[in-house]
Amino acid sequence: xxxxxxxxxxxxxxxxxxxxxxxxxxxxxxxxxxxxxxxxxxxxxxxxxxxxxxxxxxxxxxxxxxxxxxxxxxxxxxxxxxxxxxxxxxxxxxxxxxxxxxxxxxxxx
Amino acid sequence: xxxxxxxxxxxxxxxxxxxxxxxxxxxxxxxxxxxxxxxxxxxxxxxxxxxxxxxxxxxxxxxxxxxxxxxxxxxxxxxxxxxxxxxxxxxxxxxxxxxxxxxxxxxxx
DNA sequence: CTAATCAATTAGTATATACTAATACTTCTT
DNA sequence: AAGAAGTATTAGTATATACTAATTGATTAG
Lengths: 109, 109
Known about the structure:
Distance between the termini of chain A: 52 Å
CATH superfamily of chain A: Winged helix-like DNA-binding domain superfamily/Winged helix DNA-binding domain
Number of domains of chain A: 1
Largest interface: A-B, 32 and 32 residues
Helix content of chain A: 55-70%
Order of helices and strands of chain A: HHEHHEEHH
CATH topology of chain A: Arc Repressor Mutant, subunit A
Oligomer: homodimer
Number of helices of chain A: 6
Mean pLDDT of chain A: 83
Number of strands of chain A: 3
Radius of gyration of chain A: 19 Å
CATH architecture of chain A: Orthogonal Bundle
């Protein structure tokens, strides 16, 4: 059973543009090394490693060491906390759609 | 036409637990004042006002001043940037959130 | 008019964080 | 074995941010 990861952690981790770009490259590449992620990133290898550590702790990526290289890939259910949080509020909006609409109509005729 | 809001801004704004709690209360209450949001929040009115300012700038809430009170409510398509981002980077999420995205976009304030 | 109420803003502070540079650790190559 | 290559970690720094206290501005009540 996978450990439940705080939605705050997921949001905070993805909020940084550099780190999110790393995540997006990981998602797009299926498997990718730290060196590949560093090249063209605009930051140092150190920064990339630190971002990968954050992403790993947020449950968004997993690593596969192979020799002196480490391959990273996206964790399939890494976005589940975010999906759950969003679907919760979308359901709420769907339920309140009529009320919201009439409310807005009253405010802004 | 509504201005496009950076996904980083939305994520960063929702990442803070206190501010996200404010947003959730706004969503749940349809309309709510600053004083009501302050009560039971655990922080000062100043902090609440500052969080509301952030939420407003992130496109997540809108305000309706009435006398000396200011009523806040959730901006219906505030989460669209987040839904778009999620659907863009994974076919899995695109399928799962296609409905959410169109729902949010159809609700026009 | 005066005082109270509601919200926003400002200034100041403490903590978090994103980064680089330097270094350590491991694995591969020769 | 020695060095190179790939990655992680540490220390230090600069910036961002979440908060309180105090104040300001505006509206309502007595």
